[in-house]
Structures are given as structure tokens and as C-alpha cells.
Specification:
The protein is about 55% helix and about 20% strand. It is of the alpha+beta class and about 375 residues long. It folds into two domains: about 5-55 and about 245-375, no CATH class; about 60-240, no CATH class. The mean pLDDT is about 85.
Length: about 375
């Protein structure tokens, strides 16, 4: 239960705020805007690595598995073991690749065996005309090959080559799609990895494995070291142009958001300080009267700081609601996904808003303490 003195102080504080509600509303609006930007920007800063990580995955994989110890291939069983060392909730796709040289109508080509379901996850930038192969002896060809051979979707492409056991193979493969990437893939023939293994008479091997995972550069380096320490047949590498670009963009974007937040908080502090300074000037006679009847500087300072604290808490609570909406709208419009809210940021925002408001009140309080009762009461 509150004693009479405490209830009187609280009543006095709220009465003072209500009497000057037109000016206090300006300060309250400033605090609410500051809290809105603070929570919105910090929420975005915490969630942007996840959002941008998913956006960057559209540029391709960010982790590469290569055979270790100068071996031409690596066992897929070891690849599976390495993948199990990664956080499964962040894993977007794992695509194995196997390469071989073949001929078609006396022209040399590179045929690539892969998992088509996974390649669409690790290489979403592939532009596919037609569809991916779903049946045996179906292939996709790069746009450069299509232009050179004049082959179209539905055409048959004869190929010939040698297996790893030195036996020859000749097959007629049906084209179901044409790939355009603007990269080396435009000059390759793509076939299901299992079908290529049948032709090569060698199974469960891969030359390259692309991994797409939502993680920062530091996390990726940790995963690389973990795999190296547990599996000696695989040599994992970061795809540096992807990871470095991602880290650079995230760093600059986070710095920009923090800078904007800092500027808004400074402006909030100036707004509150200016408003409270005006309130002090309006209450000079009241302050002088209180001092004249025995109020000390400490009690007057506490009263003004308490008003600032109440203002900060109320403004912070309004800003929290607006900030959550603000962050959600930006995330939906920019990334097309809902943001993940860190709920501990809500009380943190209210506390920071209250602290900023109290700090902003320090100069007006100092001015209030300088009021001379005798001069004020004489009307000077």
C-alpha cells in the first residue's frame, strides 16, 4: 500500500502533466517516435542477417565441398556425414555434382550429373526453359549448346563415351529443358546423377558438392573447421565472393540503421529538453513559491525528473506498439517475409526511452534549481 505522501507526489506529477498537456503532448510524441524508430531499427538489425541471408541464397551456394588429399572424387556417404554436422534448421540445400567428358555428333561436351531437386535450392538463379528431367535418359542442356546444335525441347541428343571401367556407352537422351545462367553452366549437359553413375559404372561419388546455408561468414568458418576436424576425405571451402559480399552489405546496412537510430534518439532528447525547458519557464513562480515555503532543490529536481520518467515510460510504451508495426511493415515490403521479434527488446526499448527522457530533463532541472524565490515572487 502507498502512503499518503507517495500518493500526493504521484497525483502532483500527473496533475502537472495534464495541466500542460498541449506542450507535454509534443514531448510525448517525440519520445514515441524515438521509441518507434529505436525498436523498429534494432529489431531489423537483429533480423536482417536472417532475412538478407535468405536473399543472398538466390545468388547461389556459399559453402563448397571438394575431395581432399588430391583425390578425384569423394564418397557421398562422407558428404552426408559432413552435412549432418551442420545445423539442419539453417540448411537450404545440398547439391552433388559429377563431371565427365562425352561426345555428341563428334563434338566434345561436358556432361554433369546432379540432383535436380536440390539444384533448384542451391542455384535458384538458374533460368530454366521447359522442365527438369524426371525420367531416365532425360537431360537439360545449356543455352550455348542449344544455340550451337539447334536442338530444342523435346529433341533427342545422341551421346557416346567411356565408363570408368573402359567400356563404351552410346545413348540417345531426350531434352526436357534449356538452362541459361550467364555462367559456365550454359555450356554443359545436365543429367540425373544416378543416370550418370549407370553410364560411368561407378556409384556414390561426387566431385563437387554445393551447400546453401543461412549463416554469417564467422559461422561458416566455424562449420568449415568442424568438418575438417571430423572428416578427412572432404575439403570444405567458403565461396568467398558470396560470403564476403554478404558480410560487407550486412555490416554497412547495420551501421546505417544504428546511425539513424542514434540521430533519432538525439533529436528526441532535444525535443524533450526544449519542451521541459519551456515548462520550467512557465512554472518559475510555482518553483519560487515552493522554495519560499521550504522545498529544497532535491525535492524539486525529483519532481521534474519523475515527470520526465513518466513521460518516457508512456512514450516508450506507445513507441513499442508502433515500432513492432513499423518493423513488420518494412520486413514485409522489403523482404516479403514476416520479421522474427525478439521480445526482450520491448522492455529494453521502454527503459532506454525513459533514460533518454530523464537525461533530456537534466538541463531544464538545472535551470529550475537556479530559480531565486525572492526575485520570482517580486515579479522580476
Amino acid at each position: 500500500m502507498m502512503n499518503k505522501n507517495t500518493r500526493f507526489i504521484i497525483k502532483t506529477i500527473f496533475s502537472s502533466l495534464i495541466r500542460r498537456r498541449s506542450r507535454i503532448m509534443i514531448a510525448l510524441l517525440g519520445v514515441a517516435i524515438g521509441a518507434t524508430v529505436l525498436l523498429g531499427m534494432i529489431t531489423l538489425c537483429y533480423d536482417i542477417p536472417r532475412q538478407m541471408g535468405q536473399e543472398f541464397r538466390s545468388y547461389g551456394a556459399n559453402l563448397l565441398f571438394m575431395p581432399a588429399n588430391n583425390q578425384p572424387t569423394m564418397p557421398l556417404a562422407d558428404v552426408k556425414q559432413a552435412v549432418n554436422l551442420l545445423p539442419q534448421d539453417k540448411l537450404l540445400g545440398v547439391t552433388p555434382f559429377r563431371y565427365d567428358a562425352i561426345r555428341s555428333n563428334q563434338h566434345p561436351y561436358t556432361i554433369v550429373g546432379t540432383n535436380f531437386e536440390q539444384v533448384t535450392k542451391t542455384s535458384p538463379y538458374w533460368q530454366i526453359e521447359g522442365s527438369i528431367p524426371k525420367n531416365p535418359n532425360e537431360i537439360m542442356i545449356g543455352t550455348d549448346i542449344a544455340n550451337f546444335t539447334k536442338l530444342k525441347i523435346g529433341s533427342t541428343m545422341p551421346i557416346s563415351g567411356k565408363s570408368k571401367q573402359d567400356s563404351r556407352f552410346d545413348e540417345d537422351l531426350k531434352i526436357t529443358g534449356i538452362i541459361k545462367t550467364g555462367r559456365a553452366e550454359d555450356g554443359f549437359i545436365f543429367i540425373d546423377l544416378h543416370d550418370l553413375e549407370v553410364l560411368l559404372e561407378q556409384s556414390d561419388q561426387a566431385e563437387v558438392v554445393e551447400v546453401s546455408i543461412t549463416a554469417t561468414e564467422a559461422e561458416l568458418k566455424h562449420y568449415v573447421e568442424t568438418i575438417k576436424n571430423h572428416i578427412n576425405t572432404i575439403d570444405p571451402h567458403l565461396i568467398k565472393w558470396v560470403t564476403q559480399s554478404e558480410s560487407s552489405v550486412l555490416g554497412k546496412l547495420s551501421s546505417l540503421l544504428y546511425l539513424v537510430t542514434f540521430v533519432v534518439l538525439v533529436l528526441t532528447m532535444i525535443c524533450v529538453a526544449t519542451t521541459m525547458m519551456t515548462v520550467v519557464m512557465e512554472r518559475r513562480k510555482e518553483i519560487g513559491l515552493k522554495k519560499a515555503i521550504g522545498a529544497n532543490n532535491q525535492s524539486i529536481a525529483k519532481e521534474f525528473l519523475a515527470e520526465g520518467l513518466v513521460l518516457g515510460i508512456i512514450g516508450g510504451m506507445i513507441g513499442v506498439v508502433c515500432g513492432l508495426v513499423f518493423a513488420q511493415v518494412i520486413s514485409t515490403n522489403v523482404f516479403g517475409r514476416s520479421i522474427i521479434i525478439e521480445f526482450y527488446l520491448i522492455p529494453t526499448t521502454i527503459i532506454i526511452s525513459a533514460l533518454v527522457t530523464v537525461i533530456a530533463c537534466l538541463i531544464p532541472v538545472k535551470r529550475a534549481l537556479e530559480v531565486e524565490p525572492a526575485l520570482v515572487l517580486r515579479g522580476e
